[in-house]
């Protein structure tokens, strides 16, 4: 990255169901990720989180939303006629509301989804080790 690098701020949701499993999504490119995306100009972070989760999964009933770690990634977003832009991700933890329907409706960006144990989600998605100690166990 350059000294004068600019960055996008992205937002990700670590969603747990009633059994404590975490939702992971498989992209069309074949890698596992969490629901989320970039915050749009003028958009509040919580609005962006809820919008991205709904767009990518169809889920609308989240509770206990809690801001967690921000992490500087090595991702370089390339756009025509602009130098690569870095990405900072702001992770949030939350739960599905117990009383709501949990039917997943994946966006065209994703080809699969799975509810997995928290440590499996951490390994699949490459989450930082400092992430959500109330959800993830420390690695030995």
Topology at a glance:
Elements: E1 7-16, E2 22-27, E3 32-33, E4 36-38, H1 45-57, E5 62-77, E6 85-96, E7 110-116, H2 118-125
Parallel strand pairs: 1-6
Antiparallel strand pairs: 1-4, 2-3, 2-7, 5-6
Kindly state the number of beta strands. 7
CATH fold-level label: Nucleoside Triphosphate Pyrophosphohydrolase
> Cα distance, first to last residue?
31 Å
Number of domains: 1
Highest-level CATH class: Alpha Beta
Mean pLDDT: 89
CATH architecture: Alpha-Beta Complex
Major beta sheet summary: 4 strands, mixed
* Coarse morphology: globular
Sequence of strands across the biggest β-sheet = 4-1-6-5
What name goes with the CATH superfamily? Nucleoside Triphosphate Pyrophosphohydrolase
- Structural class computed from helices and strand pairing: alpha+beta
List SSEs in N-to-C order.
Answer: EEEEHEEEH
| Rg on CA atoms, Å | 15 Å
Proportion of helical residues: 10-25%
Low-pLDDT runs: none
Strand coverage percent: 35-45%
Specify the number of helices. 2
Task: Describe the protein.
By secondary structure, the chain is of the alpha+beta class. Helices cover 15% and strands 40% of the residues. The protein contains 2 helices and 7 strands. It has helices at residues 45-57, 118-125; strands spanning 7-16, 22-27, 32-33, 36-38, 62-77, 85-96, 110-116. It has a 4-stranded mixed β-sheet, covered by helices on one side. Strands 3-2-7 form a 3-stranded antiparallel β-sheet. The mean pLDDT is 89.
């Amino acid at each position: 990255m350059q000294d004068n690098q600019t960055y996008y701020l992205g937002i990700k949701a670590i969603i747990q169901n009633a059994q404590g499993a975490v939702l992971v999504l498989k992209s069309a490119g074949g890698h596992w990720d969490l629901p989320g995306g970039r915050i749009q100009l003028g958009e509040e972070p919580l609005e962006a989180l809820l919008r991205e989760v709904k767009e990518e999964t169809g889920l609308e009933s989240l509770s206990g939303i809690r801001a967690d770690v921000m992490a500087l990634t090595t991702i370089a977003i390339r756009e025509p006629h602009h130098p690569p832009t870095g990405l900072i991700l702001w992770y949030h933890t939350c739960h599905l509301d117990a009383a709501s329907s949990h039917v997943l409706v994946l966006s065209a960006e994703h080809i699969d989804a799975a509810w997995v144990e928290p440590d499996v989600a951490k390994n699949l998605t490459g989450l930082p080790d400092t992430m959500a100690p109330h959800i993830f166990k420390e690695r030995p």
